[in-house]
Amino acid sequence: MNDYKTLETDRLLIKPTTTNDADLVYKLFNTPHWIRYIGDRKVKSIKAAVAYIENSMLPQLKELGYSNYTVIRKSDQIKIGSVGLYDREGVEGIDIGFAFLPEYGKKGYAFEASKRLLQAAFEDFKLKEIKAITKKDNISSQKLIEKLGLKLEGTTGLPNETAEWLLYKIEITAFSIAK
């Protein structure tokens, strides 16, 4: 895993998720917020979290050089959430996502980690645009996505889901100006 980029901010380390992060993945995937706004991934044990990481996160990391990242607070080395760049079925292009354990919400960590990952997407991974999706009733995610500089493009659907998702986009030129 050492070949993949670890990112940093003043308060956070942002490293590619590995099977060593299965405890965080298990906790995150089972929070009410995750289940309501992202969906139940049926990860009901640490063993299932390891399998999810091996089958859904690591293949994209190996193929594209980026995927899901574990966010670690520098002050105490606690794993507090995740951010990621995803080649998600149903979204044309790469989209950014974020999720944090409830006790670390409303502290600016999601914005700080997502902004750093967005910077890496354009500067390190040489992507030209990034998208984001969120459910229509997830107002806090919409505010964060807009604070990151993404603009509402419309709506989209995802495979095997009936919900309509809001679709946002930012291009490298808009990100350069917003920096």
UniProtKB/TrEMBL annotation:
This is GNAT family N-acetyltransferase. PROSITE patterns: GNAT. It comes from Galbibacter pacificus. It comes from the Bacteria. Residues 12-171 form the N-acetyltransferase domain. Coiled coil: none annotated.
